[in-house]
Amino acid sequence: MVRNMTAKELASTFAPAILSLLFTITTYFSYTQNPECSQSVNAGQCWDFRPLLIPVFSFLTVVLGVSSVYRYWLQTNKRENNGGGQKISSEENWIGPDGTESGPGVPEDWYLTYNGPAPIVEGIYDENYGVDRGNGAVPIDYYIKKWGVPEGFGKTDHEKLWSKA
Are 18 and 62 in contact (CB under 8 A)? Predict the structure, then answer.
């Protein structure tokens, strides 16, 4: 999802490139309008660095311009969490299509507040089902009490203990 940038963000993104462009243009016009070396009365030799500064400023302008466009692209193409502004607890997490935060940074007890459909069970790990959302684990006893025995599972002794209770 694309987000809009404020005027302050736009200014801070493009200001370095614009300032560099202004220095380049100023130096170029200063040199083309007055190519002679301006000397002071007591100076015997002229040291005019404008011809050297023009390519340096030009290169700097190109680099800062590309950098600014890249920063602009990054900032405008940041994905909002789920379009609803739901805050996520970690940069490594994501919001699934059902609005459930998933990923390694999700609290271990995420399933206690989860009100969606039964998570898809992908495997058994110790006393937990490996599921497709949250932090990827739900205790077998809790899963069976809330959603029942998942299809294709229920054969282990631990599962049988809770499915009969």
Answer: no
